[in-house]
Specification:
This is Acetylornithine aminotransferase. Homodimer. Pathway: Amino-acid biosynthesis; L-arginine biosynthesis; N(2)-acetyl-L-ornithine from L-glutamate: step 4/4. It is found in: Cytoplasm. The protein has 13 helices and 17 strands. The chain is an alpha/beta fold and about 400 residues long. It has two domains: about 150 residues, Aspartate Aminotransferase, domain 1 (Alpha-Beta Complex); about 230 residues, Type I PLP-dependent aspartate aminotransferase-like (Major domain) (Aspartate Aminotransferase, domain 2). A seven-stranded mixed beta sheet has the order 4-12-11-10-7-5-6, sandwiched between helices. Helix 4 packs parallel to helix 10 and helix 11 runs parallel beside helix 13.
């Protein structure tokens, strides 16, 4: 522990685009984390759905150590074994035939949107450029992806923004059908809106979206940055629906905590990313791909995925019991281990206060806007940790209700 590092140091040397907690975690194991003072926390946040296998999973650690003794980085001038191995795993497990690797979800979505525009131009002409996205969506922080996201607050101050992006209401098939046209090149959608409040898409909405995209030769892009890699009890959320996208993006849990993103698509569509049309210095590097390969092997396991559904049931039951006693939430939305607890009207705007109170009680949680408490724990969180975390969350809920 370096006792010279403090929260004040963040304000001194870091760009102020974040406002992190006063605590500084220094060690994690499984679903528990310890700060500089040695205080223990139950992790219901999972690094925002990143640490799908918890902290320092032994097999991920072993893979990282082994690969670190072999080869860290190669430019894309050369081929590397771990990248091909991971791409083969992903294509065998999904609809996709080819993969592009990036470093993050935003970069994966950037690649998907660029590919959609290029594919439309290559196959249908220069006028097919419109991208449809949805209100309250979130797709990343690059200028292109933040514009595609449907939350104006993330775009303020960065104008002028990329053009020909249209935002429509989520889960509103009639409006989509009215608007979509031959000028639409792609529709990008989260099967569950994460930052927008843990709002699942209705099956009929996604099915209609698929049919309309096919009708108008528009590509359907599923942003599975947060919903993928077992989070909903399927490897990717699209597998819970009778819908197959044209492009799928993945990141967050793909590397189990090691930064990596991926864009998955078919060979026909991928042809538009011809030689030199897109690239990444670090994307697909051996370290990231090796760790992600092990993470994918562990997560894409029927027993683990069934365990996600079992934990979903237990979390939902536990949260309902807490809410019956304390009464803060008007709705609890659960899809696998992506959980949103929406505050009642009288407690609207208090989600961040609840987060801070939970931290004081020794449980790490998230928010999804000012009115929704978000949980995204490890997919293999031990049941005793789940129960202890819920007990601590209950104390935080009581503290909020009693006015601290």
């Amino acid at each position: 522990m370096d006792k010279t590092i403090s929260r004040k140091g963040f304000d001194d040397v870091m760009v102020p685009n974040y406002a992190p907690s006063q605590i500084i975690p220094v060690r994690g194991a499984g679903s528990r984390v310890w700060d500089q003072a040695g205080k223990e926390y139950i992790d219901f946040a999972g690094g925002i759905a990143v640490n799908a296998l918890g902290h320092c999973h032994p097999e991920l650690v072993n893979t990282l150590q082994e690969q670190s003794q072999k080869l860290w980085h190669l430019s894309n001038v050369w081929t590397n074994e771990p990248a091909i191995q991971l791409a083969e795993q992903l294509t065998k497990a999904t609809f996709a035939q080819q993969v592009y690797f990036s470093n993050s979800g935003a970069e994966a979505n950037e690649a998907a949107l660029k590919l959609a525009r290029k594919y439309a131009k290559d196959n249908f002409g220069a006028d097919k450029t419109e991208i449809i996205a949805f209100n309250n969506g979130f797709h990343g922080r690059t200028l292109f992806t933040v514009t595609a996201g449907g939350q104006a607050k993330y775009c303020e101050g960065f104008e002028p923004l990329p053009g020909d992006i249209t935002h429509l209401p989520y889960n509103d098939l009639a409006t989509l059908e009215y608007h979509l046209s031959d000028k639409t090149c792609a529709v990008i959608v989260e099967p569950i809106q994460g930052e927008g409040g843990i709002i699942p898409a209705e099956p009929v909405f996604l099915e209609g979206l698929r049919a309309l995209c096919t009708q108008y030769n528009a590509l359907l892009i599923f942003d599975e940055i947060q919903t993928g890699m077992g989070r909903t009890g399927a490897l990717f959320s699209y597998q819970n629906y009778d819908v197959i996208p044209d492009i799928l993006t993945s990141a967050k849990a793909l590397g189990g905590g090691f930064p990596i993103g991926a864009m998955l698509t078919t060979k026909v569509i991928a042809e538009s990313f011809s030689l030199g049309s897109h690239g990444s210095t670090y994307g697909g590097n051996p370290l990231a791909c090796s760790v992600a390969s092990t993470a994918l092997k562990l997560i894409n396991d029927p027993t683990l995925l069934a365990g996600v559904k079992q934990r979903q049931t237990m979390f939902l039951s536990g949260l309902k019991q807490l809410n019956q006693k304390i009464g803060l939430f008007k709705d609890i939305r659960v899809e696998g281990l992506l959980i949103g607890c929406e505050l009642k009207v009288s407690w609207q705007g208090k989600s961040r206060e609840l987060l801070k109170l939970a931290e004081e009680q020794g449980v790490m949680v998230l928010i999804a806007g000012p009115n929704v408490l978000r949980l995204a724990p490890s997919l293999i969180i031990p049941y005793p940790d789940m129960n202890k975390g819920l007990q601590r969350l209950a104390q935080a809920m009581l503290a909020l209700k009693m006015g601290f």
